[in-house]
Design a protein that fits this description.
Helix content: 40-55%
Structural class: alpha/beta
Distance between the termini: 43 Å
Number of strands: 5
Low-confidence stretches: 3-16
Number of helices: 6
Mean pLDDT: 92
Largest sheet: 5 strands, mixed
């Protein structure tokens, strides 16, 4: 039982580690490694569709394996609960990202960006027809 708990914790930490918080770092790495950047605007503790999209698609092992080869993942989170608040610097940075890439304040909003910062496409909300396979297929059309 302990071994199972350790494996689950390790898998969770591995998936969480794939998500960065800095777009410029992700773009620089994407340029060097011929990847795209997936920028995800989330309300992690209040937005139901954000939580579902994260659990059902973005943090599945299948999508994470795909992302390792094709994407740099950046999460711009906007939590509301005091216990989940980000640093003032990260909050300001996420707000700056939102001004440029999510000016209408949609949640969730998932934006596919090239290494130069140009928006390739975006997914507004959690579309009913979106699953891991369809998202991967849509992303691959841009390579």
């Amino acid at each position: 039982m302990k071994l199972l708990a350790i494996k689950i914790l390790f898998a969770f930490m591995l998936n969480a580690a794939l998500w960065g918080e800095n777009l410029e770092t992700a773009q620089s790495d994407a340029k060097q490694n011929h990847k795209l950047v997936l920028l995800y605007f989330s309300g992690s503790d209040w937005c139901g569709p954000c939580i579902k999209l994260k659990q059902e698609v973005l943090e599945t092992a299948e999508f994470q394996d795909f992302a390792k080869e094709h994407l740099n993942l950046v999460r711009a989170d906007f939590p509301r609960m005091k216990k989940n608040q980000l640093s003032k610097e990260q909050t300001a940075y996420n707000e700056k990202l939102a001004e440029k890439y999510n000016p209408k304040g949609k949640f969730p909003l998932t934006v596919l960006i090239n290494p130069e910062g140009k928006v390739i496409t975006e997914w507004d909300g959690y579309p009913k027809n979106l699953d891991t396979q369809s998202l991967k297929k849509q992303i691959l059309t841009h390579f």
